[in-house]
Amino acid sequence: MKLASIRLLTSRLDELVEFYELVTRASFQRPNPVFAELVTDAGALAIGGDATLPLFPGTGLTVAANTSAILEFQVEDVDQERIRLGDRVPVLQEPTTMPWGNRAMMLADPDGNRVNLYAPHTDDAKARFAGR
User: Fold this and answer.
1) For strand 43-49 and strand 102-108, is the pairing parallel, antiparallel, or unpaired?
2) Fold annotation for 1-57
3) Across the strands, what pairs with 103?
4) How far apart are the C-alpha atoms of 46 and 39, rounded to whole Å?
């Protein structure tokens, strides 16, 4: 089994796509007006508009209701990303070195989903990520 994608559901599809394109510097594919997908080597970030909710009856899904998951993107240099993004995105936590050795910065997307940009910072953290 492999993790194929993470999907966010939103009533603000274009705003989320714009946010994630800014943060990742990558373009989403838009195979349908109510669906967008950013495909990476590690899997995909999919964003479905609220018009897709009826496709999942009885699941209890709703839009913009996440407060317990963090989407994480590994970057080369967190501090450089902070400078690049400036005030164009909400920063919830400035670049910080975590106890497990990553340098990280927490953002919020337009729906309030938490987005962590991180880079292995200490020698131990760099060794954990070597070859990934």
Assistant:
1) unpaired
2) 3.30.720
3) 97, 119
4) 8
C-beta separation of 114 from 92 below 8 A: yes
Domain ranges of the chain: 1-57, 67-132
Question: What's the CATH code, domain 67-132?
Answer: 3.10.180.10
Of the candidates 77, 80, 73, the residue with the CA atom closest to the CA atom of residue 107: 73
Rounded Cα distance between 94 and 105, Å, is: 5
Does residue 121 come out as left (phi exceeding 0), alpha (psi in the -120 to 50 range) or beta? alpha
* Cβ pair 92, 107 in contact under 8 A: yes
pLDDT tens, residue by residue, 44-54: 999 999 999 99
> Which residues share a beta bridge with 105?
117
Joined together, the tokens standing for residue 84 give 């690049």
Task: Look up residue 28 and give its DSSP letter.
Answer: P
pLDDT, one tens digit per residue, over 68-92 is: 999 999 999 999 999 999 999 999 9
> Whose structure tokens read 């993107």?
73
What the block records as the tokens of 72 is: 């994480």
- The structure tokens 């009533």 sit at 11
